Amino acid sequence: MDEASVPDLGIMSRVDGILVSVGSVAGMRIIDIGCGEGQVARTFAQQGATVVGYDPFIAPTDWVDIGKGRFRLATAAADTIPEPDRSADLVLFVFSLHHVPRELLAGALGEARRLLKAGASLCIAEPIAEGANQYVMELYHDETDVRRAAADAMAEFARPYFQSEKVIHYRERRTFNSFDEFAALAIAGTRFNSYTAEDVLSSAVRRRFNEMFAIHGCNFDLPIRLNIFS
After folding, report:
1. What is the pLDDT of residue 68?
2. Backbone phi, then psi, for 150, in 5-degree steps?
3. Complete edge-to-edge strand list for the sheet that includes strand 88-94
4. Could you tell me which residues come within 8 angstroms of residue 135 by beta carbon, excluding any fewer than 6 positions away?
5. Is the pLDDT of residue 192 over 80?
6. 20 to 30 A from 227, CA-CA: which of 22, 32, 162, 185?
7. Cα–Cα dist 57/96, whole Å
8. What b/e readout covers 127-140, taking b as 16+ CB neighbours within 10 angstroms?
9. 58 pLDDT band (50/70/90 cuts)?
10. % of the chain beyond a pLDDT of 70
């Protein structure tokens, strides 16, 4: 696909970009794989969906009614989702596919296909490894290789199995008025990643942040590529 022809939604949150692209989710049953703390599951439930979020690093919760829908979180790896075949109207990987170990990517995307009802969609949102945020972050957490592996896995284990694919770009606004604000958000992510607070707070990271701040000001927008397979 010619990336120059891919539509760009501009500045949107990662969840709003998905909602705009897939349309109404009211009444849908959605499975969110790699759900983290459940932000995506919560937001989709507010829009009227029934959502189950799975992640190997979270504790399970009971059902929570919110907005017009409900959600719960459960513990499971991406390639072993304890749900029946063809039980989902939409399966999501939101900033999570590149966290799946390389040897499990085929299994994870196979699970997604198994879970989808006929005519349902698989939606994968992944950050693009470029821009000011990437330039600073790569010193302590360079995800270029794992994001490439996720893209390769989509090409091999998703694209051939669906009738259509829609690709959309947008950018999540990330505003940092100081290095301390940037570092605080990065350190909050250590729970799900292998870097440490000391890695983030290094003088080299601070120098790169200041370099980008001088060029871009407080905006460290994160580019996102959304693939919707139907």
Report:
1. 92
2. -65, -40
3. 8-11, 165-172, 222-229, 116-127, 88-94, 29-33, 50-55, 69-75, 64-66
4. 208, 212
5. no
6. 185
7. 12
8. bebebbbbbbbebb
9. very high
10. 98
Length of the chain in residues, anyone? 230
Q: Is the pLDDT of residue 107 over 90?
A: yes
Half-sphere exposure of 228 (CA within 13 A, CB side): 17
CA distances to 9, 53, 80, 99, 204 from 75, rounded to whole Å, are 33, 8, 10, 15, 37
The gap from C-alpha 53 to its chain's centroid, in whole angstroms, comes to 13
Q: What is the pLDDT of residue 1?
A: 53
49 beta partners: none
173-184 pLDDT, tens digit each:
999 999 999 999
Mean pLDDT of all residues in 103-130: 97
* Tokens linked to 164: 């259509």
Closest CA to 66 of 49, 52, 54, 90: 49
Using an 8 Å Cβ cutoff, are 77 and 111 in contact?
A: no
Give one DSSP letter per residue of 53-110, joined into a string: EEETTS-----EEETTEEEEEEE--TT---S-TT-EEEEEEES-GGGS-GGGHHHHHH
* C-alpha dihedral, 75 to 80 to 84 to 85, nearest 10°: 150
Alpha-carbon gap, residue 84 to 134, rounded angstroms: 38
Res 2 pLDDT > 80? no
Secondary structure class of 129 (helix, strand, coil): coil
In the chain the domains, ranked by start, together with CATH numbers, are: 7-129+141-173+222-229 (3.40.50.150)
* Eight-state DSSP code of residue 193: S
d(CA 67, CA 75): 24
